[in-house]
Amino acid sequence: MNEVRFDGRGSVVRWTETPGEEPARVYVHGLGSVSSVYHAHIAARAELAGRRSLFVDLPGHGISDRPGDFSYTLTDHADALAAVLDATGLTGVELVAHSMGGAVAVLLAHRRPLLVSRLVLTEANLDAPPPPTAGSSIIASYEEDDFVDGGHARVLEEVGPPWAATMRLADPRALHRSAVGLCRGSDPAPRTLLEGLAIERVYIQGERSGEVEGREALETAGVRVTTVPGAGHNVMLDRPDAFAALVAGRR
Question: Residue 149 gets which letter from DSSP?
Answer without folding.
Answer: I
